Amino acid sequence: MEKGLQWETTWLDLPSGEHKKPEYLAINPLAKVPALIDDGVVVHDSTIIDEYLEDKFPKPPLLPSDPVMRARARSFEDYADAYLAPSMVKILYQLRKPEAERDKVLMEQGAAEVRKHFEFLDRALAGRQFFAGLFSLADISFIPQLSNYEHAGYAVPGDLLNLTAWWQRMKSRPSYGQSMPVSKKD
After folding, report:
1. What is the full DSSP assignment across the chain?
2. For 14-56, which CATH class?
């Protein structure tokens, strides 16, 4: 949405294993989501998809032109995938199970980790509106994660003022409402 591109979304039911069915494996044999099909070109992984779209459609830019800030944006994008997401998964995957089958210790561990990540992100946003100067892929990379977390009934702790304000700015963007529905049924 940020680049003004049109697309069609196909939702997959991950808990049922829809991403492991032959139809999706023909698109991505690794059974990972997301995947993008653009004029017959298949691109896998959110990071690679973001970079592909940035290269193909450079206006408006979603990576800073300054090399230092560009590296900062890429570092935060990596942080979202490599650090925050695995901690959130410890909670969110357990919530897919019946309550009696949930690993409460793992969920508590995930919650403690998420809190530390949020504290880090809050400090990183001190004196900033966005993670890498202007709105960029750094900010975009956290949106699905925080949206899923919030949808599961959790929230950014109110005492983390920088992160809370940033999250409100992200949710107020027109692109958020257009691209982050609560579920595929909405």
Report:
1. -TT----------GGGTGGGSHHHHTT-TT--S-EEEETTEEEESHHHHHHHHHHH--SS-SS-SSHHHHHHHHHHHHHIIIIIHHHHHHHHHHHTS-GGG--HHHHHHHHHHHHHHHHHHHHHTTT-SSTTSSS-HHHHHHHHHHHHHHHTT----TT-HHHHHHHHHHHHSHHHHHH--SSTT-
2. alpha beta
